[in-house]
Amino acid sequence: MKIASYNVNGINGRIDILLQWLEESQPDVVCLQELKAPDQKFPIKAIEAAGYGAVWHGQKSWNGVAILARGEEPLLTRKGLPGDPDDVQSRYIEALVDGILIGNVYLPNGNPSPGPKFDYKLAWLSRLQDYAAELIELDVPVVIAGDYNIIPTELDVYKPERWADDALFRAEVRDAFRKLLAQGWTDAIRRLHADERIYTFWDYIRNAYGRNAGLRLDHFLLSPGLADDLSRAEVDTHVRGWAHTSDHAPVWIELLDDLKKGAE
């Protein structure tokens, strides 16, 4: 089972890029972030024509998350992260696909820090920790994928010294990520590429992609029991080099087929 995550940075403006990548990569499940479209503007007809069912949680001009499943309809289980009924930002969606619970996250950027946006990010991370602890207790396999807007370690950024005070790399944020892992979650990329310098994001400015001046912001967290069924974890780096593409590249993992037994 191939599960992918892709911050599309505007789904309608980059629908051709998304469809081209779907045709090339053929993932079974896709978590999309930063749709930048309200629910009624989600391009469901184009997605269905590509062979995918979808559930989505949109927002005009900002945020927005979706889960696609090839040849079937994902079973929606949640829209929105619990813990703050006043939070109206569309940053979390969850669905069951072939016995695997898929959580799709788009964490706040948090800049400038310190400040209200950084405080919101830390509060959001606290809510995610609480909910992730609940998910890990479920008797089903769980994957929490998406754009975490977190650089976990110095290995995940091209020049760590330049990012020390950035909300993506501040100590509080990296500590929150470590606390998630301490619950029992596995960072899929690092499970299979422990010491490699791997990036998933390159800014549009200063030829960042050409210089490979990147960041690893997009992650897959696997619940206990899934780590041993992880067979591949890769980044489609070349997609970042396409014309008019997102500043993120798609990231994907492959899980052994016998995983589907989890909820059967």
TrEMBL record:
PROSITE patterns: AP_NUCLEASE_F1_1, AP_NUCLEASE_F1_3, AP_NUCLEASE_F1_4. GO terms for biological process: DNA repair. This is Exodeoxyribonuclease-3. It holds the Pfam family Exo_endo_phos. Residues 4-248 form the Endonuclease/exonuclease/phosphatase domain. The record marks 248 as: Interaction with DNA substrate. Keywords: Hydrolase, Magnesium, Manganese, Metal-binding. The record marks 218 as: Important for catalytic activity. Belongs to the DNA repair enzymes AP/ExoA family. It comes from the Bacteria. Gene3D superfamilies: Endonuclease/exonuclease/phosphatase. The record marks 149 as: Transition state stabilizer. The lineage of its organism: Bacteria, Pseudomonadati, Pseudomonadota, Alphaproteobacteria, Hyphomicrobiales. Its cofactor is Mg(2+); Mn(2+). GO terms for molecular function: DNA binding; double-stranded DNA 3'-5' DNA exonuclease activity; endonuclease activity; metal ion binding. Probably binds two magnesium or manganese ions per subunit. SUPFAM superfamilies: DNase I-like. PANTHER family: EXODEOXYRIBONUCLEASE III. Its EC number is 3.1.11.2. Transmembrane segments: none annotated.
